[in-house]
Design goal:
302 residues, 13 helices, alpha/beta, two-stranded antiparallel sheet, single chain, 9 strands, 7-stranded mixed β-sheet
Length: 302
Amino acid sequence: MRLLRRDGGIKSIDQINMNTGLLQRFKHEVLDVPTGVILITGPTGSGKTTTLYSAIDYLNRPSTKIITLEDPVEYVIDGIMQCSVDVKAGRNFEDSLKAIVRQDPDIIVLGEIRDQMSAQVAVQAALTGHKVLTTFHTEDSIGGLLRLMNMGIESFLISSTVVSILAQRLIRKICPDCRQAYMPNRRIAKLVGMDDEILKNHTFYRGTGCGTCYGTGYHGRTTLHELLILNEEVREAILEEKTSHEIRQISCESTDLLSLMEDGLYKVIHDMTTVEEVYRIAPRSLSNRSVTEICRLMGDEI
């Protein structure tokens, strides 16, 4: 059973807790691009659907024709055409997409890439000049590229059609009613990228447990994001079928890619969550960046 909260409505793009610098890049360098595939990735329960619908809401204008193909339709949005896959009724994925393309949409939204056929559908739709938004189950942004390759999608097709991959996780926030200063476990802090200078000079907080947070020390959740925007260097690495480590290194150097763990460190420094929570949630990624450099790339100073 999948439970969806409809009382709060669809979140706008400004309400998905993305850092201001990343949000501006996501809007102007990704969503405003006229054609190509935009992937939102993460495990089940990481908020992919919420981010997808907020992107649709941002793109939803009277002059733009948006058609979705979902299994099933999860949220109803005014002003767009939404189609539900129903194999028993004769509306399978492939035939439904052919019907959608004949209606000349500006943007096609696929609920999820589940197999090789749906991946090929997304790529072929982008090749015909459409903008395609979809979700994908992968660990991080680089993993999205590799999984497409493993599904049998040719590297030159991935290189020429994929615009961006946004990976995300949901992470718990410190309870504001029982927040107290503390010193994080030094070993865990080192493993997630904290150096001695930051540990010595910064005040860290955690929740001690109260009625508001039911004794957990956490109340509410926020999002960690990893935004990969493909440039020529990354596309060339895909064509050469380099390893995930090499593609990540090229992405970090040429596109200022910030990993999920680095975004987690940024949120620790800004007292949104704890070091232990970042260690529990974020995939491990090696980074030579200092916390100061991470904050600078996010657009502010600590």
